[in-house]
Amino acid sequence: MSRVYNFSAGPAVLPEEVLKEAQEEMLDYRGCGMSVMEMSHRSKVFQNIIDEAEADLRDLMGIPSNYKVLFLQGGASLQFSMIPMNLMKNGVADYIVTGQWAKKAYAEAQKYGKANKIASSEDKTFSYIPDCSDLAISPDADYVYICENNTIYGTKYKKLPNTKGKTLVADVSSCFLSEPVNVSDYGIIYGGVQKNIGPAGMVISIIRDDLITDDVLPGTPTMMKFKTHADAGSLYNTPNCYCIYMCGKVFKWLKKMGGLEVMKQRNEEKAKLLYDFLDQSKLFKGTVVPEDRSLMNVPFITGNADLDAKFVKESKEAGLENLKGHRTVGGMRASIYNAMPKKGVETLVAFMKKFEEENL
Ligand SMILES: *Cc1c(COP(=O)(O)O)cnc(C)c1O
Questions:
Q1: Is 171 annotated in the active site?
Q2: Which residues of 61-92 are buried (b: 16+ CB within 10 A; e: fewer)?
Q3: Which of 201, 168, 204 has its CA nearest to residue 60?
Q4: How far is ligand 1, taken at its centre, from the CA of residue 28, in Å?
Q5: What's the 200 CA to ligand 1 centre distance in angstroms?
Q6: Strand locations in 176-287 (E)
Q7: Cofactor note from UniProt (predicted)?
Q8: DSSP state, 293?
Q9: Percentage of the chain modeled with pLDDT above 90
Q10: How many C-beta atoms surround the C-beta of residue 250 within 10 A?
Q11: Separation between Cα atoms, residue 245 and residue 223, nearest integer Å
Q12: How is domain 17-257 classified at the CATH fold level?
């Protein structure tokens, strides 16, 4: 068996240890005689799995007791509608558009009320984060929405926007658990798990209690109400049981590694290796302004589409997979999530050096 270094933006690399553990438990989960995939979500065994996953996540992130943790389906994209349906009591929300995902969320919210674009970085292909220290926040805004780490463009908010007292809602799909956060700064902090946590097919939404009410937009389906899932402990209907189990294993792995402070250090070290190389390279160039660079997603280009294509092809042959950039940016993108070992980034940088020597 030979595993590649997988730089995919998502679904993405998982810790090898976690995959092996899941393999060992595949046919017989701890003496149950069945796989977690085959087990009732109403069973005591599964209840333990979901309870432990939630407790470990609360521990890792320091989630205060006045926040609910919901394990939901429909990915991050369904939250684009669930958020306005549950939160737009005044029918107004402010969106900061820093990439495709924020843009999609903003477009979706327009179906349910007045969504205002209060800042954007689209003028420069989303290569920076706009100044959010003194935005024209709408006086009656129900919330201010951001995408905290922009998976496609490789930017990250280094400071949260000044929402002037309004509820902040953040999509953290691609930076979830990459560093410590102060959950109390947010009304909702949510993300699809397939980037930095587990397999695809689930979103974790961490929501302050006062935002979970029956007062939702008329016609909101039962399944789209936060309260439905909060009241049922994420077991209103059959959840993505196997994904919850895998995420739970990743939470334990993160705790064993030392928690989010340690992950932040590791992620900074890995990102520095790559950015330092890009900053002195004569062939490759990062596409993001240095002050807004993401620790997780690193887009870069040579400036020559043929050379980019050659790089992607040859890197794949060298066991470095999924380095092709998003179609809207071109070039390359290395996603270096928690589970990407430092060795993977070192191998990538060594390959880039060699490619530069051969092609400059
Ligand atoms: C991948 C991604 C999404 C979409 O996630 P799905 O689970 O496929 O709906 C949304 N937001 C961000 C920031 C992402 O990276």
A1: yes
A2: bebeeebbbbbbbbbbbbbbbbbbbbbbeeeb
A3: 204
A4: 33
A5: 10
A6: 188-192, 203-208, 285-286
A7: Binds 1 pyridoxal phosphate per subunit.
A8: B
A9: 98
A10: 25
A11: 22
A12: Aspartate Aminotransferase; domain 2 (3.40.640)
The length of the chain is 360
- 195 included as an active-site residue: yes
The tokens describing 341, both together, are 């070992």
Residue 141 has pLDDT above 90, yes or no: yes
- The pLDDT of residue 207 is 99
C-alpha span between 205 and 41 (Å, rounded)? 20
DSSP, residue by residue, 68-136: EEEEESSHHHHHHHHHHHHH-SSSEEEEEE-SHHHHHHHHHHTTTSEEEEEEE-GGGTT-S----SS--
Tokens of 12: 């993405």
Question: Which of 95, 103, 174, 205 for mutating ligand 1's site (highest number of atoms within 8 Å of CB)?
Answer: 174
Q: Are 330 and 301 in contact (CB under 8 A)?
A: yes
How far apart are the C-alpha atoms of 252 and 323, rounded to whole Å? 29
Domain boundaries, the chain: 17-257, 259-359
Name which residue sits closest to atom 8 of ligand 1, judged by CA: 75
Distance from the alpha carbon of residue 10 to the mean position of ligand 1, in angstroms: 8
Contact 291, 157 (CB under 8 A): no
Token duo for residue 177: 């658990």
Check if 163 has its Cβ closer than 6 Å to any atom of ligand 1.
Answer: no
Model pTM score: 0.98
Q: What is the spatial distance between Cα 47 and Cα 305, in angstroms, rounded to a whole number?
A: 51
- CA dist 268 → 6, 173, 195, 345 (Å): 19, 18, 18, 12
> How far apart (Å, rounded) are the C-alpha atoms in residues 167 and 327?
33
The reply to whether CATH 3.60.10.10 applies to domain 259-359 is: no
Residue 342 three-state SS: helix
User: pLDDT digit string (tens) for 12-50?
Assistant: 999 999 999 999 999 999 999 999 999 999 999 999 999
